[in-house]
Amino acid sequence: MASASTNLEVGPKRNQAIFDGPHGLVTSLHPFAARRYNVGRPNVFVSFDLDHDQDLCDRLEEQATQGGLGFDVTGRSERRRFRVAEYASVRHAIRSADQVIVLCGEHTSASAEVFAEVRIAQEEHKPYLLVWGRRERMCTKPECAGPNEGMYGWTRPILREQVVLASRKVAAEAKAAELRRPTRS
Question: pTM for this structure?
Answer without folding.
Answer: 0.73
